[in-house]
C-alpha cells in the first residue's frame, strides 16, 4: 500500500468510493479484499500493476459509515493486511504555523489533551514537512501514521503534531455527525501560498515569470532561519519591513522558532506534500494560511487563493477517479492579529483578499467555501508570539458552523457574521446609515472601527474616522462630521489589530463577528 494507508485509518464513506493504491511488480495482478469484523468478505477488487512506476489503483464500492474492517492486498504469495479500518469522513488540514500549532499549545491544553481518549473514532495522520522540485507520487516521510488519538500524539511538541485547529474541528464534526472522522495534517509554518500552489496556479496569477527576479529564500531548512523575514523584506520599503527580535534571528535551527521559516520556493510543498495525496477520497479541506503573504505578493492573494482552491479541487477530483466531489467543501480561517499599534494595512488587505475582495464567502469566485473570522481572537501575550493566538477553540467552532452549513447542507445553521447590504447617505444631517444582513449585537460602541473615504477625487483616499452615532436592530448610523468632500468609500475593522479579545463592535446574536469590509 502507499504510505498513507495503514492500521486505524479512516476511508471516505458513501456516497463516494474510497481510492486505494500501492506498488507491485510490473504486470502483476493485485487482489484487494475488504473484510468485516467476523472475517466475512465484504468486497474484492483486482487491479493490475502498471508502469512506469509500478503502481496499482482501485476504487472500493461505497461503504456505509462504521467498522472495524480489515483491508488486504495480495500479489502472488505476498500479502499485506491493514487492521481496524473505519469508514467515515476524511478532512485534509493544511496551511502554515497557525494550522501546525498543536493541541499542547492552545488555551486549556491539559484539559483538551485529557479528553483525547473520549474520541477513539476520530483518527489522525500527519505528513512530515517535505519539499521537492518535482511532483512526487507518494509522501517521502510521515510524522504520525494513522493513529487513535492520545494525549501524547495530540501534543507531541510545539508546531509538530497534532494540529489543534484540525483536531478541534474534527472532534466537533464527530460530535455533530456521529460518523468516524479521519484527519490528515499537512502543514508547515512560515510558508507562503506560492509554495502550496501548482505551477498552473502561479501561471494563472502571473507569478511564474516573476520568480527569477525575486529572491525566493529558504532553500535549506537549516539555513533558512531568517528566510521569512528576509522574504518579507526584499521588495518592500524599509519602513514596512519589520525585523525579527535579535534573539529570534540568531537562534539555532533547532530553536522553537523553527516554524517561522518554512520554504518560500514556489510549488515545493504542492510537489512533496499535496500532490502525493491526490488519490485520496476527501470530504473537505480546512486551511489556515496567509500570514506569510502579508509580506509577500499580498495583493496577488485575491488571485492565488481562489486559484489554489479551484486547482486543488480539480486535482483531487481527477486523482480520486471522480470520487472526491468537484466542488469539494473548502473552509479557511481569516487572519487573526499580529501587532497592536501597527499602521501597516497588509493584514487588512490580506483578510479582504482571502474573500476574493468580496468580503463574504461563499461567493461567485469562491463557491462552496466557508470562513472563520478570527480578527477578534488576538492574543498579545501568547508565549509563541502574538501572531499565534492560543484560542483555537473559537476558531474551530466558527469553522464547524461553516462546515455544517456548506459541506453538510444544514440550512438552519447561521455560519456568517452580519454583513452590510446597503449604505444610504443623509447629506443634510451628515450621517451615513448602513444596513446589515442580520440582527446586530453591539459589543463596543466607541471603537474606532468605521472609516470613510473622504475625498474630491477617487485616489488617493483620505480615510477619516466615522464615529458610531446609533445602532439599531439591523442598522448602524455613522457621523461624517469630519468630511466636507465626497464620501467615496467605507471600511470597517481595517487594521492589523482591529479590536480587543471578543470585543469587536458588531456581532450577530449567535456571537459571530461582522467580518471586515472595504
UniProtKB/TrEMBL annotation:
Biological process annotations from GO: carbohydrate metabolic process
GO molecular function ontology, one term from the record: sialate O-acetylesterase activity
UniProt-listed SUPFAM superfamilies: SGNH hydrolase (SSF52266)
Protein name according to UniProt: SIAE acetylesterase
